[in-house]
UniProtKB/TrEMBL annotation:
Gene3D superfamilies: Medium-chain alcohol dehydrogenases, catalytic domain (3.90.180.10), NAD(P)-binding Rossmann-like Domain (3.40.50.720). SUPFAM superfamilies: GroES-like, NAD(P)-binding Rossmann-fold domains. One of its GO terms (molecular function) is oxidoreductase activity, acting on the CH-OH group of donors, NAD or NADP as acceptor. Its main location: cytoplasm. This is NADPH:quinone reductase. Homotetramer. GO terms for biological process: small molecule metabolic process. Pfam families: ADH_N, ADH_zinc_N_2. It is found in: Cytoplasm. It comes from the Archaea. Coiled coil: none annotated.
Length: 318
């Protein structure tokens, strides 16, 4: 089969298409013919060796959607020809930028018939992150106000929809060119993230009970300032050892909770994937696909996902 792989950590040009052996399922595994693979900033961090979590030779791609071609012993919930999607590959096991992939049951869920393969692949990682971070960890519920930083991003544009589906009212930040689209996705208020009076504008929209933050180092004090009493903050990126409150007294006074969330470290993705599948099947969450790439264009997709500004997701269709 064809797979796009890296044999050493490095820049996008380490990615090359190779012919490699098609995987066979072991106990508790399924093999999926890939129709679409999602592209995430995480894939580029793994490829560069920033985390040293994905030992080469490695096929990148956490997210996948496709059709089951074979199942291993002990698999009863999936059968040949099932439409499935999933996430969490490209770290311990080979990723989805290939014609076939082997996934264990923790990585996979059924894909509703009315959700396309491209949508499934675009949704998996960001949907799981949004659901698990905001609803499971931070307890987002109907009537809450949620603040989503970067509401046009891969995570952000799905987090807005997940928060809305949970019954929350949503304030999002985004560049002005995306405000109309982020509003159409369900945000009640959309604010330019670069405005000088951002804290006042967020507070006027209503103090958030839950905050989804992908730039926590920059926003930690802003979050503290605008958060409601007892707010839950989900930090998914930008966390480094310098992270500190300049006014920890205010954070304590508001009894804020900061959740450091790392989706790749979840022990299983399947329950969250099933919730995301239900939301997608109901039409409550629908990812925006900005562009698709061929299997020989994965290096370009890796460049674009970190260099370009766009609303939504990039997808590879092998
Ligand atoms: N911990 C986890 O489990 C987890 C899971 C998923 C993702 N992540 C991480 O979270 C980050 C975001 O992922 P993604 O897939 O959403 O990336 P993305 O698609 O590149 O989105 C990033 C978004 O941030 C916006 N942005 C840029 N500067 C900003 C600022 N100062 N304030 C607010 N927003 C700003 C961008 O808008 P413009 O283009 O308009 O500037 C863009 O919409 C990445 O670092 C990723 O690795 C972590």
């Amino acid at each position: 089969m064809r797979a796009n792989r890296y044999r050493e950590y490095g820049e996008p040009n380490v990615l090359q298409v190779e012919d490699i052996e098609q995987p066979e399922p072991d106990r508790g595994e399924v093999v999926v013919a890939i129709e679409a693979a999602g592209v995430n900033p995480l894939d580029t961090k793994l490829r560069s060796g920033a985390y040293e979590w994905a030992t080469p030779p490695m096929t990148p791609g956490a997210d996948f959607a496709g059709v089951v071609t074979s199942v291993g012993p002990g698999v009863t919930d999936f059968a040949e020809d099932d439409r499935v999607f999933g996430t969490g590959l490209g770290i311990g096991r080979q990723g989805s930028c290939a014609e076939y992939v082997c996934a264990s049951l923790e990585h996979v869920a059924q894909l509703p018939d009315n959700v396309s393969f491209e949508e499934g692949a675009a949704l998996a990682l960001v949907g799981v992150t949004s659901w698990e971070g905001m609803v499971e960890k931070a307890g987002l519920k109907a009537g809450d106000r949620c603040l989503v930083h970067g509401g046009s991003g891969g995570v952000g544009h799905v987090a807005v929809q997940v928060a809305k589906a949970a019954g929350a009212s949503v304030t999002a930040t985004a560049s002005p060119q995306y405000h109309d689209q982020v509003e159409k996705l369900g945000a009640d208020t959309v604010l330019d993230y670069s405005r000088d009076d951002l804290a006042d504008a967020i507070a006027s929209a209503g103090s958030p009970d839950v905050i989804m933050d992908h730039r926590i180092n920059e926003n930690i004090d802003l979050n503290t300032q605008v958060a409601a009493q007892g707010a839950q903050i989900v930090a998914i990126s930008g966390t480094d050892i310098e992270l500190s409150y300049s006014n920890s007294g205010m954070a304590r006074g508001k009894m804020q909770t900061l959740h450091h969330f790392a989706m790749p470290q979840m022990s299983t993705f399947a329950p969250a994937l099933e919730r995301v599948a239900t939301l997608a099947g109901n039409g409550q969450v629908s990812p925006v696909i900005e562009r698709t790439y061929g299997l020989d264009e994965v290096a370009q997709a890796h460049e674009d996902v970190v260099e370009e500004s766009f609303l939504g997701k990039l997808v590879v269709t092998p």
